[in-house]
Structure formats: C-alpha cells, structure tokens
Amino acid sequence: MGTLIDEMTNAGVLLATEGCQPSARGFKVRRTGDTITVKDGPFTESKEVIGGFAIFRVKSKEEAIDWTKRFLALVGDGESELRLIDDN
Predict the structure, then answer these.
(1) CA-based diameter of the chain, in Å?
(2) Cβ 16 vs Cβ 54: under 8 Å
(3) Count of structural domains within the chain
C-alpha cells in the first residue's frame, strides 16, 4: 500500500488520504424542518460505514477508475465509491 501511495503522490494525483475511526466513535446530525437530532454511533448498517477516503486530482473518469482498480487489487474484495467534488 505504501508503494502505491508513494506512486500516486509522486504522480501528483493523490491530494489526501485518511482512515476513519470506528463508527462507535462517530455520530450523525440530521435536520428535519426546524428539528435537529444527533445520533451517536455505532451504526449497524456496515454497508453504510466509510472506512477511509482518498482525494484524487485526475484528468478523466477512466484515470480515476484505473487508480481505484490498483487500490482494490491491494486490499482485496470490497467496493470503492468515487465522487466528484467541487473545485471552484
């Protein structure tokens, strides 16, 4: 994993990457109308838990997919969700 992170950093693609602490240490804040609710973790739906994130700056969707394929090849079975962020 360190080799891939170094390669992505040297290529100027990787802007940030972090692991997330367990959901038991997190919370969710929800607004419904004028009501704010706070729900402490842990969250039972593990499919909805984010384990970490990485921010890429790439030129195309295809390039993002290629880097993600390399990441998944290292970590094994799983899923990565790719999202665009505003870059104003």
Answers:
(1) 49
(2) yes
(3) 1
Buried b or exposed e, range 32-47, using 16+ CB within 10 angstroms: eeeeeeeeeeeeeeee
Tokens for 59?
């030129």
Q: How many CA atoms lie within 13 A of 29 on its CB side?
A: 2
Identify residue 56 by its one-letter amino acid code: F
38-77: pLDDT as tens digits: 999 888 776 667 788 999 999 999 999 999 999 999 988 8
CA–CA gap between residue 10 and residue 68 (Å, rounded): 16
CATH number of the domain bearing residue 33: 3.30.70.1060
Give pLDDT, residue 62. 95
- Is 88 within the bounds of a domain? no
Question: 56: domain range?
Answer: 2-75
DSSP-derived pairing of the beta strands 27-32 and 14-19: unpaired
